[in-house]
Amino acid sequence: MVDLALDRTVGRPSRWIAGLKRGGPRLWIGSALVGVLVLAALLAPLLAPHDPIEQDLMSAQLPPAWVTGGDPAYLLGTDSLGRCVLSRLIYSARTAVAVALIAASLAAAIGIALGLVAGSFGGWVDQVISRLIDVWMAFPPVLLSIVLAAVIGAGLTSVIAAIVVVDWTRFARVIRAETMVQQQRDYASAARVIGLSRGGILRLEILPNLIPLLVTLLAVEMGIAILVEVILSFVGISVAGDIPTWGGMIAEGRQIVYQAPWIMALPIGCIISSVIGFNLLGDGLRLMLDPVQRR
Amino acid sequence: MTAVLTVHDLRVAIGHRGDQTNVLRGASLEVGAGEVRGLVGESGAGKSMLGRAVLGLLPANAVIAAGIMQFEGRDLVAMPEPERRSLLGRRIALIPQDPMTSLNPVKRVGAQIANLLRHHLALSKRDALERAAELLAEVAIREPRRVLELYPHEISGGMRQRVLIAMAFACDPSLVIADEPTTALDVTVQRQVLQLVERLRQRHGAAILFVTHDLGVVAKICRTVTVLHAGRVLEEGETADVLARPRHPYTRALLAATPRADRPAETLRPVPPALIENLWSEAHRLDRQLAMAAL
């Protein structure tokens, strides 16, 4: 027999390209939006034209530069204290990205662990975890976050803690159900027949099947985390007052929305595009990672 | 001939307490080294359950009520879980029923075979893939190296079944349980698969327990056959004898129900389990009376 492609034991590059094609426009638009957000957060000091907390009361409430009366130095105008809106938007991305990444990852880690345990062991272990999830989900999540943030005190850590404590159930519930489904599949019993232990089956056989789902959940969760952070900073119990946040900007802009609507509209636009970005990226990655997925 | 597998008076009940159904009611069976034994019976006769009991794959609500299962002289019923796991896949292997669902959909064929080899034979990743390619060549898969790179959904059902057969024989087991491996395949592929199983059996020197409802398949490949009905063994012996001169009316009915081109099909006239139950207890009563008389 002719030995074909002896040294091409791994054909990864073509797989990646195929995967990127499967991801489609969702993947591209999603990663572009998220990419812009992350870059803004990382490079904030370089990108921002002004110090975000530097006040210039002489040029307060300037409209964006292209509107009559705008100042080219303040591209997106200034707020009521004369602070550069563009710079504040860019710096706010830092808080948003930090919260999104850290809170979503921690919530995922806790939720996945508990979901896998509940789904694979079943019995009383599953009963305990499932009831815990039920009780947890009976609380209104935003209210719980606000109470938590108020109790722990303001600051980045408490915002993250509030989100993790509330949102691990989202992962646990879905992972538990999907683990149960996957465990009933023939390939899982086939894995038992080749002598893998329960842990081995979970890690080597079931977890890879959960990855497309997990990626989607994680991306959606990052969007949700951004929203929760916005809500908390809107009511003023997020990070310290001198750190700009989108929620804080909306709260400030709300009072002068008739005189200077851009102050409120611009952070809202940022929030919408970030959340849409994360959702599209999640969808795109799921399509890309799932080899069986067909459109 | 030493027995690879001895099953004696195996009783398995399924269901919850108070509502149990006996699926195996004292089934006995012996498979000698290198023997190919057919295990036939209509749907619900308990033939798959017997195979699953040997593999330790009984459903969660099934219990082994009584009986002996020995593999190469070792007690499978009392065997601790780790010891059983070290046997599965290495000494006892399964060719599963449905090739479409028995491979993990998100892992490449090569990774799945290599995983098995690494688990039991402690090969390096590179050696395992090398060996996997040889195994695929052995089951007449062209371009084995290319197939190693593919996902299960990218290859045909017949090919998947051949991959599963290769995996079953990969670690030179002494017993292979084939659970209706040809049922999900079309007739032309069936023949190839049967020939392949027979060839690999000869090469690797394994015994095969061939679970099927297809007497045609039994006639082709099995030297001995056990006929199971309602959880009990009705008849066993050399395939040629059993098929040519069936002693039990049920075997006759099973034979008559096999579709053939030269005569119209006859529906299977089942012998009601209740009737057999009565015959059985009647026989036991007579035995006891005789024993008493002898005293």
Molecular shape of chain A: elongated
List low-confidence stretches of chain A.
1-12
Helicity level of chain A: over 70%
Large-scale geometry of chain B: globular
Number of helices of chain B: 11
Q: Which homologous superfamily in CATH is the superfamily of chain A?
A: MetI-like
Largest binding interface between chains:
A-B, 32 and 40 residues
- Secondary structure class of chain B reads alpha/beta
- In this structure, how is the largest beta sheet of chain A organized? none
- The CATH class designation of the domain at 3-82 and 215-294 in chain B is Alpha Beta
End-to-end separation of chain B? 36 Å
Q: Average pLDDT value of chain B?
A: 82
Number of strands of chain B: 10
Walkthrough of the structure:
The complex is a heterodimer of chains A (295) and B (295). By secondary structure, chain A is mainly alpha-helical. Chain A has a single domain, classed as Orthogonal Bundle (MetI-like fold). Chain A is built from ten helices and no strands. Chain A has helices at residues 12-42, 44-47, 85-121, 123-138, 141-152, 156-184, 186-193, 198-234, 246-254, 262-289. In chain A, helix 1 (12-42) crosses helix 3 (85-121). Chain A is elongated and about 75 Å long. Residues 1-12 of chain A have low confidence and may be disordered. Chain B has 295 residues and is α/β, with parallel strands linked by helices. Chain B has a domain at 3-82 and 215-294: P-loop containing nucleotide triphosphate hydrolases (Rossmann fold), CATH 3.40.50. Chain B is 41% helix and 24% strand. Chain B has helices at 47-55, 81-87, 109-121, 125-138, 144-148, 157-169, 187-204, 215-221, 239-244, 249-256, 273-294; strands spanning 3-16, 19-32, 36-40, 62-71, 74-75, 92-95, 175-179, 207-211, 224-229, 232-238. In chain B, strands 6-7-8-3-9-10 form a six-stranded mixed beta sheet, with helices on both faces. In chain B, helix 3 crosses helix 4, helix 4 packs across helix 6 (157-169) and helix 6 (157-169) runs parallel beside helix 7. The longest helix of chain B is centred in the last third of the chain and has 22 residues, at 273-294. Chain A binds chain B through residues 1, 3-6, 8-11, 122, 185-187, 189-197, 200, 204-205, 208-209, 211-212, 290-292, and chain B through 55-57, 60, 82, 85-90, 93-94, 96-98, 101-107, 115-116, 119-120, 126, 129, 137, 142-143, 145-146, 148-149, 151, 153, 164, 167.
